[in-house]
Structure formats: C-alpha cells, structure tokens
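Journal club prep — side note

Before the paper discussion, L.F. wants everyone to see what a predicted structure for a comparable chain looks like in token form. Sequence:
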Amino acid sequence: MTLKLQGTFTALVTPFTEDGGAVDYVKLRELVEWQIQEGINGLVPHDRVIAEVVATVNGRVPVIAGTGSNSTVEALRLTRAAKEHGADACLVVCPYYNKPTQKGLYAHFKAVAEVGLPVVVYNIPGRTNVNLSPETIAELYKLPNIVAIKESTGSLDQAMEIAALCDITILSGDDNLTLPLMAMGATGVISVLSNASPKKVLAVTEPMLKGDYATARKAAFENLTRSPSKRCCSSWASVRLPYALLWSSANHRLLRTSRN
C-alpha cells in the first residue's frame, strides 16, 4: 500500500470485556469494520490489538501502529513487532516523564526510524512534559522513514514554524484545532472524536483537502474529550479506569448528540 497521510485517521479505542480484564476482539473487529464503512482514511491502534486490526483491515486503509514509549528499548520492541504484524507505519510519542534533551529526542527517533517502518512523530508536551522543537523536527525530517508529525502542542505558532523549516507532513493531534491547522497546510487529523463520529470529522477534513473552506467551517464540530468519546463507544464495550463514565445528565446529552 502507498502510504497517503491525508484526511481523518482514528486513534482507535481498544474495547474491553465488561470486567475490563481482556480485550473484546469481537467488538474490536466490529469497530474496525464500522470505521471503514463510515469512510475513515486510516486507523491508529496500539500494542496487543495491532495484529488483529491489520488482519481485519486487510489493506483497505492504512494502519498506523502506536509504538511509543519513554524507553527507547521498548519503543524499538513495539515498532519491530508492528512491522512484523504488517502495519503501514508507526506513531511514536516523545518519551514521557524522563524529560530528555533535544539531542536525546533526536537520538530516540533516529533509532526507531532505523527499524525501517515509516514513522509519524507524536509531539504532545501537555502529556509528556517535553516539547520537540521545530528545529529538531526539521533535522529528523532529513532522516529516512521520518514521514510526518502529529502536532499536539496546541500552538499554531509552532505548527507554522515547522512548516516554514521543512516539508514534513503535519497531522493535527487536536480535534478542535483541525480546521485552523489544515488551513495552514496540515493534511488531516489523527482524531479521538472519530471513534464516535467519523462522518462529523470527515465532514471537516474532506472539504478542507479540496480547498472548500466555507463547507468545512459549516461542518465545524463541538470538541469532545477522550472520556465522552469513550462513553459513546461504551454502549457496546466497557471503559477501563482511569477513565470514568460521565454524570447521567451529561451522558444523555452526549449520546443524543452522537446519534444526530
């Protein structure tokens, strides 16, 4: 498959059994099929479910495996496994908690890229406590297999600086910033919201890719956090801690919205 990083890619939730102790593979396959039927452009699963998602997708859309870790050794293990399972690319988050320097970040991603699978770098300093600088991203883009950046800094200034320094593909990592980032040249989004409402996200990304900004603006959606997105999915599978279900009043509003 030729890797085309445009449009909406779902950061796929992992369905679990009612007791939360095991992956619900039946529901996982149903979710993958539904996502494809809804027109999603790609799927982004993690760890244990990668092989199952690759098999279910069967080449119909790209599968970008989540293989990041704060340990380079673990990230390499996960990336090699994803490659063996047939993933089309990998999504690798900046190492979290241990706050590496820019030199350390560069070395980490360089090592992962040498596995031979296309790498989407994931920069989300609000969760990792470290920001991958635009200059480091530009240096990484010179390496074979570094193909894209999932931009989750929340900073339009940083996204513009990245675009000014290099031609790396930029994907939004924030559902609520997809519209402005695509207006600045991003080619799509790795979305949480699309777990529950693929067509609502596609209604923004598809016209944006065609330059139809007016239609995309009309389709702009209310941003939802991960917990509401997972609540929509919990109608057919269980939600595991530390995520918790919404209060009943918010839950009724959310499910009513997701059906519309």
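L.F.'s comment for the group: The radius of gyration is 18 Å. Keep this in mind when we get to the figures.
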